[in-house]
Write a structure and sequence with these properties.
- The chain has about 270 residues and is α/β, with parallel strands linked by helices.
- Strand 8 and strand 9 form a beta hairpin.
- Helix 8 crosses helix 10.
- A 7-stranded mixed β-sheet has the order 4-3-2-5-6-9-8, sandwiched between helices.
- The N terminus is likely disordered.
- It is built from 10 helices and 9 strands.
Amino acid sequence: DDLASLVMAALLLALEMAAGFVIPAAPPPLTRANVQTACHGLSMSVQVDDKAEVKEYFNNEGFSRWNRIYSEEGEVNSVQLDIRTGHAQTVDKVLRWIDEDGTAAAGASFCDAGCGVGSLALPLASRGAMVTASDISDAMVTEATSRAKAAGLSDKATFSTSDLEALQGKYDTVTCIDVMIHYPSDKMSGMVKHLAGLAENRLIISFAPNTWYYRALKSIGELFPGPSKTTRAYLHTEEDVVTALADAGFKTARMEMTGTSFYFSRLIEAVRQ
């Protein structure tokens, strides 16, 4: 048991340092002493602004790191390579679903929320889709725009800097891949509801699943201070995400799971009921 705990601790620390985010630790037991300590700390602490942290991180240190991870080439360490592989597998699964129904080839409209450097938006555009993509990071949007121009896809894919909650319009399909990890549980359903309001027919999202293994990692994470200038990683149960989709008027059509050594993502395709 001690060896297994040490192994999980090492994996967590490596993931935090290499990928650039911190898995929030599980809350301590609810005791009188802990409640008193927490209440005292509230007056001295500053409320975490996840959105501001994400924007700051991906416009600076995080951009350099994740731009390499989201590129097919470029030197990365073994953990980053594993995450690159996992993310690419998730994107490939989304593209397979879309290829099967032919919507992109037919020129359907897509909104890619949290597009990063265009890992999904550009392949969609190359298939014939009209893609409106956005990211909270100016640096990511600049890189995605450059990639679209280099690929001759500027007429099919447009990129803009935007907060996800500020997105407007109507699209045949809305995609949001590996973004929910930045949303705490109390804000996840609101995020899903807003994205669902943009989708005429289909919503494709992914999230880091909240399982016993990750809950264990959270507990172990209390023993290790995370590196500076990173973002928090929030996990969500499949039940909670499916419920949020149902509340927004969508039902699950297909699911996939991608799991490598350091990358875990549950992918859901939901259609309007």
